[in-house]
Amino acid sequence: MFQTPQEFLNYVKEKNIQIIDLKFIDMPGIWQHLSMYHDQIDESSFSDGVAFDGSSIRGWKAINESDMAMVLDPTTAWIDPFMKEPTLSVICSIIEPRTGQPYSRDPRTIAQKAIDYLISTGIGDTVFIGPEAEFFIFDDVRFDQNEHEGYYHVDSVEGRWNTGKNEGPNLGYKPRYKEGYFPVSPTDTSQDMRTEMLLTMAECGVPIEKHHHEVASGGQCELGIRFNKLIKAADDLMTYKYVIKNVAKKYGKTVTFMPKPVFNDNGSGMHTHQSIWKDGQPLFAGDKYAGLSQMALHYIGGILKHAPALLALTNPTTNSYKRLVPGFEAPVNLAYSQGNRSASIRIPLSGNNPKAKRLEFRCPDATCNPYLAFAAMLCAGLDGIKNQIDPGEPLDVDIYELSPEELSKVPSTPGSLEGALEALEKDHAFLTETGVFTEDFIQTWISYKIDKEVNPMRLRPHPYEYALYYDC
To answer: 5 near 74, Cβ under 8 Å?
Structure first.
């Protein structure tokens, strides 16, 4: 919206903006915000930042060294469509006020360091990222867990499980399990809502493309946004999630980006397209397999080699591995192929335009922190390019049709978050030796995930265990 702080401040004055909302992302990947009266923001806010207490932000510093500052990025500003009073929203990066240096645990800072590292290698100067985040729209969600009970309940007017429910009247038209892709109204009940989501995102500066119903019953959908430069793509994805959740709330609905909220139907992923450019020219087009360059194949080699560790950042929740299960329609096979959605890396059939040549990593999901996930994927790919890692032969078959013996020869993703974190513990030099991630960040990430997510899940009985073992 603006290129300079002065343009930002002039707009605030001209439009009589009263409130400026400062948004930043915490370590796990949730936006936090602070709303400031307009006269509290001046040119120094774009360099020295706005002070705040970082001790209560998940994964950040202790209370004895908690002073931090949010530095506004004027290029990210947009009028927040969900605020009653005119409010200018702006995304921030975090600095250490004592030194003025970027904070090493700030995800947006880490993403910038990934771009700086790419430029320093001389390989390229730009990486384009195109995320495709799926989600569910529910009418009701309830969950609880305590010492003597644990349950969840989600419901949707589109849920196939409601075909026999007395809805006064029940009109039917509920997508069958795994058959929710592209139905028209009245089976598709969220057309108008998705249109509002898409157009609202455009008002917020997100480049939009399309929207549609997705495969699962129970309200699974996807909105299409255009690819963008790495940091802007992460900014766009956070705006995407913010807009979708808040528009759904206006309709009395609730949205989740959980990878597997519904049993026995398709989960929600975030297929991530990526390519490297230099001096305005694409570098992934060539005369190798599927029209790729040798550089692109080496990039794929890096992703495949480091995939088990990568997933600790691209698929960072225990629920992520309810989606990534061998034998189901999930990208668990660490192989690459042209136009083949059963491989974890797909080369889209994009025609002869070299600018469209890219690869699609199909494992990630939208529970990730996009700044960390995109930065980590770039580091893995660059490691492949620098070390000329051979990705092996493509697997141009329906992997789901392979025999057990054939399938055993195809490497697979980790089966749990704990497994991915163990892989990250063993394999993170490609992240830290570049200077993009610090050892402190990696160890903090692993400890946080083990202490706050893996162990709490491990300690609690699962409801299905009662069905399996109560009568033992």
So the answer is: yes
Q: Return the H-helix or E-strand segment holding 31.
A: strand 31-37
Cα-based distances in Å from 157 to 136, 177, 184: 12, 14, 15
CA distances from 14 to 8, 31, 376 (A): 10, 28, 41
Per-residue model confidence as pLDDT tens digits over 220-272: 999 999 999 999 999 999 999 999 999 999 999 999 999 999 999 999 999 99
Residue 61, pLDDT above cutoff 80: no
- Phi, psi torsion values for 275, nearest 5 degrees: -160, 155
Tokens of 80: 């927040």
| Max Cα–Cα distance, the chain, nearest Å | 73
Instruction: Note the helical H segments in 269-410.
Output: 294-314, 320-323, 370-386, 404-407
d(CA 274, CA 130): 6
Answer for the pair 267, 259: CB distance below 8 angstroms, yes or no: yes
**Cα–Cα distance measured from residue 278 to residue 425, given in angstroms and rounded to the nearest whole number:** 33
Asked if 58 and 104 count as a contact pair (C-beta separation under 8 A), the reply is no
Query: What's the whole-number average pLDDT of the chain?
Result: 95
Contacts of 174 (CB under 8 A, 6+ apart): 157, 158, 159, 160, 162, 163, 187, 217
- Residues 33/42, Cβ–Cβ less than 8 Å: no
Name the pLDDT band for 280 (thresholds 50, 70, 90): very high
Single-letter code of the amino acid located at 303: I
pLDDT exceeds 60 at position 309? yes
Report the DSSP pairing between strands 87-95 and 19-25: parallel
Cβ(464)–Cβ(264) below 8 Å: no
How many percent of the chain have pLDDT more than 90? 90
Cα–Cα distances (Å) from 192 to 183, 211, 246, 468, in that order, read: 14, 10, 15, 43
Asked whether residue 63 carries a pLDDT value surpassing 70, the answer given is no
Q: What does pTM read for this prediction?
A: 0.96
Q: Which residues on neighbouring strands pair with residue 137, listed in sequence order?
A: 255
| Catalytic residue set | 53, 132, 134, 214, 222, 271, 341, 360, 362
- Of 65-69, 184-188, 259-263, 440-444, the poorest mean pLDDT is in 65-69
